[in-house]
């Protein structure tokens, strides 16, 4: 367990890259000593707090800061990690977060936003940006929406505009066909489905863009908590499909964000 200690809320809105450049500028201008600069840069590539090693360098390496997986962490642990992340990055994302974790984090980071549908906590201090259009998230049923929302929140935090089309599964395929023009307008699709998991294959056979298939744990006994749709998606005969793990909305949204951004992310 981490030590109980007060951590000041960071007010910086700089990315890790800007933070690094600012420290180097101060050194060059004589506003910081070599020792002070070395102390500041000692937190790169990560900040070792014993029980956690916060990866401040990740945004420089891959273009997006470290994400906190909330499941299995206490509210106190999530709060401390988030505070350290936001001291170097304008964005923080916590997935699989509880209301309890949000309420604890909100006391320290007042601009934190909780989305109960996706079970995510977001801090975004990057200011207003023009969002890149091109990502559409589709679900087979309404029970798949929490995973789909996690994908959407992730892609939106990566500065993408996300369209959502929910409850168009193969049991009523006319609903899907009615939305086909909108689906075909996307640059990349995230398709979320449980049960037998046929929806990504159907959609991939109708579009010319990448389809990221997300199996969910929704279904009756023989779906084996998502194994059945996972195997269906992995064995799809339709080309253009990549498959992430069961209920991994974050992974799907992140991959969609990378595809949609292309070289812009760098």
Describe this structure in words.
By secondary structure, the protein is an alpha/beta fold. It folds into two domains: 16-124, no CATH class; 132-265, 3-Layer(aba) Sandwich (Rossmann fold), CATH 3.40.50. It is 38% helix and 18% strand. It is built from eleven helices and eleven strands. The chain has a five-stranded parallel beta sheet with strand order 8-7-9-10-11. Strands 3-4-6-5 form a four-stranded mixed beta sheet, sandwiched between helices. It has a two-stranded antiparallel sheet with strand order 1-2. Strand 1 (47-48) and strand 2 (53-54) form a beta hairpin. Helix 1 (16-29) runs antiparallel to helix 2 (34-41). The protein is elongated and about 65 Å long. It starts with 15 loop residues before the first helix and ends in a 5-residue tail after the last helix. The model is unreliable at 3-14 (pLDDT under 50).
Task: Kindly provide the radius of gyration, computed on alpha-carbon positions and rounded to a whole number of angstroms.
Answer: 20 Å
- Ends distance: 37 Å
Question: How many separate domains make up the residues?
Answer: 2
Which architecture of the largest domain per CATH?
A: 3-Layer(aba) Sandwich
How are the strands of the biggest sheet laid out side by side? 8-7-9-10-11
Report the portion of residues in β strands.
Answer: 15-25%
* C-alpha geometry: elongated
What class, by secondary structure content? alpha/beta
Q: Fraction of residues in helices?
A: 25-40%
List the helices and strands and how they pair.
Elements: H1 16-29, H2 34-41, E1 47-48, E2 53-54, H3 58-62, E3 68-69, H4 75-86, E4 91-95, H5 99-108, E5 113-115, E6 120-124, E7 132-139, H6 145-157, E8 160-165, H7 173-178, H8 180-184, E9 188-193, H9 199-204, E10 211-215, H10 227-234, E11 241-243, H11 249-261
Parallel strand pairs: 3-4, 7-8, 7-9, 9-10, 10-11
Antiparallel strand pairs: 1-2, 4-6, 5-6
